[in-house]
Predict the structure.
Amino acid sequence: MEGTSLPSEAVYWPFKKYLGMYKRSIEDPEHFWAEEARKLDWFKTWDTVLEWDPPYARWFVGGKINACYQCVDRHVKTWRRSKVAIYWEGELGDSQVLSYSTLYRWVNKFASVLNNLGVSKGDKVVLYLPMVPELPIFMLACARIGAVHTVVFSGFSAQALADRINDTQARILVTADAGFRRGKYLELKNISDEALNLAPSIEKVVVTRRGNIPVNMKPGRDFWLHELLDDAVSYVPAEPVEATHPLYILYTSGTTGKPKGIVHGTGGYLVFTNSGYKWVFDVKEESVYWCTADVGWVTGHSSVVYGPLCHGAAIVLYEGAPDYPSVDRWWDIVEKYGVTIFYTSPTGIRMLMRYGEDVVKRHDLSSLELLGSVGEAINPEAWHWYYRVIGGERCPIVDTWWQTETGGTMISPTPGIELVPLKPGSATFPLPGVNADIVDESGKPVPAGEKGYLVIKSPWPGMLMGIHGDPQRYKDTYWSKFPGMFYTGDYAIRDKDGYFWLLGRADEVLKIAGHRIGTIEIEDAAVSHEAVVEAAVTSRPDPVKGEGVVIFATLQQGFEPSPELKNKLKQHIRSTLGPVATPDEIYFVSKLPKTRSGKIMRRVLKAVASGASIGDLTTLEDEASVDEVKRAFEELQKKV
Ligand code: AMP
């Protein structure tokens, strides 16, 4: 298999089905993906499977399709019209069950609401909603009329929301009066009002009622959804859009202060999501599938909404926190709905591990058949607990590696094709069509057992179409480090059996509880506080969140280090970026260690923050003189 990363076939001989499919997909990707694409309903078949004009890939060019039609309309033409689409569980214990025909009715009505507000094909709509049924319904309603949705995670602050609105220049915002999180109100309308002072492009705001709290409604700008629904018609045709028409823009952190608007198209994205979902989760008609991710992340887009609904699956959508009102809330939900496929993050597992096994054993989890993990590498201890305590030693675990940019899972066991033997902590092998490899600094494949950069060597249908409004950044971020290869930003290693092990980010991006945050974003937030001159952000290992944020900051004259200042700064960063970015520790220092060229020596900071030995200093940037490093290190040691 020249040109691919798979080791000799001998290793795979028992896994003929997977290997055969993988081989075909890499040898003749266009034929392979055309076969997969025929599993969807197209209004018009494509003329060309792939136009590859590096670094831009256009899939299924000339084809016409609609994402809402795939996820809803085609099911209501079959017996699935009476099948459950969404089991929604509110944090308060309230619930709703939506069949596919109910979902159909609502997506049509919501699409009509958008039409009546003047939204049409290509317009951008920002959705800032809690985990309520209105969120997937609005996404599908946008897709129905060809509008492009941008979901902003409801845990984000006013500033983060405003930044995203300003980048999209959207005219419509959809929000709620409030959501619930751990029994407290998340006052989304108030936060939106604050954001709108900074984001003038928004002309109309649709507000759905969830918290039943009083909010300000600005006449002519703000509208209650339930009132708009009075004028909505019950059928809006699904717009056949070009396969390359953008379906959504989703923001993710990178190595600069400005989040990147990742643009995903429609046809290629749906083909990749539809096939990958089947391969990874082996979904069956009778499956009850629950992915705990918030819809505000890519996992929520592809693995809560588009992937499962393309298959007519029954999904669980839960509004609240895993441990509220009691620490067994998740297990209660698994039992209540008879969940068969459960997909979550290592952070979630580690958090619930702390409460012990008895809490789990109070529940009948015998419905579970398959478990999944996503967002960060799963440590073997958490893997074993998940397998034994949650899965009762009978459910395989699919450890799925992917990212916002890839649109869908790239490396994972694929029980929907053939289950390979699992190794706790390894995401196993690339999915068919995913030409993954691990290379060294010069772009050459590394030998088995050696760490390198994870790259993808040819385009795949779920690949991002670009970064909204910034083609140069798209080229620089993903295609310039290794020309001709997509750079993922992750370190990985392949063992002698060809299994992939993901080793975390190679760039200045942190993964806090599975959430991606650029160190520079946090540094920008820190220096926006009046007391801070300069800040450097690093992380230290955290037993639950994987990584915790640590800040080293120098202070303006007139400000003295104190616990009060530390708390104020923590609060400031939390309210600028949202709770995920809240620092675990802040160290005030008189000087940050830098190289002669002025680059902050983050590795020294990381060594200090995580209590690593001075030996780590050998890995510093080579421009730095050892003396300089030692002096800075000693100074830090004194001050920390
Ligand atoms: P996001 O785009 O927010 O989904 O973050 C993607 C990043 O999360 C990847 O680049 C990885 O660093 C990390 N990641 C996601 N899934 C896994 C996994 N199964 N194992 C290891 N790291 C993962």
